[in-house]
Amino acid sequence: MFVNTALVRAPSLATLSSSLIAFALLMAACSSDGGNGATATSTTAGEVLSSVSTSTAAPTTTTESASTTVVSAPASSTAPTSAPASTFELVPATEATGTVTHGTLTFAGLQRTYRLYVPSALPSGPVPLFIGLHGGTGWGDQFARTNHIEGLAESNGFIVVHPDGVKVAGGQGGVWNGGVCCSVAARDNIDDVGFINALIDQLATQYSIDPHRIFAFGHSNGAIMSYRLACELADRIVGIGLYAGTLGVQTCNPAQPVSILHVHGTADTNIPIAGGLGSDGISGVTFPPPHNGFDTVAKLDGCPAPTNTTVGDITTELSDPCNGSSAAAFVTIATATHSWPAGTPIVTPASGPGYADYDATAAIVTFLLSHPRP
């Protein structure tokens, strides 16, 4: 067990494997939403973290349908399968021609909703699942349009689901119970960990989901929720990727090591990189320093002392390997605000355009797929 009042990571003398030192290097151009096609040059996980360039977005074409499911108790876990290679080569995003389904799931007496994207063609065998958690007052459709991950799902053969948080009265968007935040979800102690667990179980009955590659990623309140999943649902969540979040629970006791990529901007005035009450925040929460939460997870993962590399505005602290083939990386982007880097802001009020020269979605997808659970 680790309590979030003693947030110090003990350095280790373990060395990094040569195949992952490239995390500190520039990557080849890679689109988060662009129409480069599957024949474009692949990108390794190591090349994504330090710098990710973007390209012109391609139009997205999807087929939409609806489904309703009632879940009263979690189903059995998906069967294990062999883990893929340790370094994933990302295929640039292509046009998202798969199917979007809006589903309903009843859990703990509440009707919960989600957006599900399934590529037009899936590879044989179990496939990865990405769970996208929107920011406070956001919603699944909004976050999917902001982060453009569905184009990467199409070209790389994985399923992505964007669940909706509990709705805030008088608005379209919702919030998550990340512990310290946010709003009605935290106030009413909504069991969002249980909801995500039930959602994984439900999707595993419909698709062949690889339990070695189930990942959560989130923004702001969704990033805070991602941390909570790492602490409380580590038997299902293999890794988390996030932008502009912090650890919001006092006790973190993951059942297994969980890989983590935390990206944060130095100009974030909603969840400041030094912690505290953001001048533009709407939650009214005084946040703990984001790096402290990262240090908590990295220590629990048994990570070695990080290797630090700066390329332009971007500083990467990488610890790899950690226990259980996990890894931990904290990326700081000088001048970046609270908005999703290289994303398309949808929520009003928004924090302005995201940092254009770092594709957070591509970085998160590549990092997490490079660190499956053995």
Could you describe the 3D structure shown?
- The N terminus is likely disordered.
- The protein is an alpha/beta fold.
- It contains eight helices and 17 strands.
- The chain has a single domain, classed as Rossmann fold (3-Layer(aba) Sandwich).
- The radius of gyration is 18 Å and the shape is globular.
- The strands form four sheets. Strands 3-5-6-8-7-11-12-14-17-16-15 form an eleven-stranded mixed beta sheet, with helices on both faces. The protein has a two-stranded antiparallel sheet with strand order 1-13.
SSE order and pairing:
Elements: E1 2-3, E2 43-44, H1 45-48, E3 63-70, E4 89-90, E5 99-107, E6 110-118, E7 127-133, H2 140-147, H3 149-156, E8 159-163, E9 166-167, E10 174-175, H4 183-187, H5 192-206, E11 209-219, H6 221-232, E12 239-243, E13 251-252, E14 259-265, H7 290-300, E15 307-311, E16 314-319, E17 328-333, H8 360-369
Parallel strand pairs: 3-5, 7-8, 7-11, 11-12, 12-14, 14-17
Antiparallel strand pairs: 1-13, 2-4, 5-6, 6-8, 9-10, 15-16, 16-17
Supply the key terms.
disordered N terminus; eleven-stranded mixed sheet; two-stranded antiparallel ribbon; single chain; globular; 8 helices; alpha/beta; 17 strands; Rossmann fold; 20% helix; 374 residues
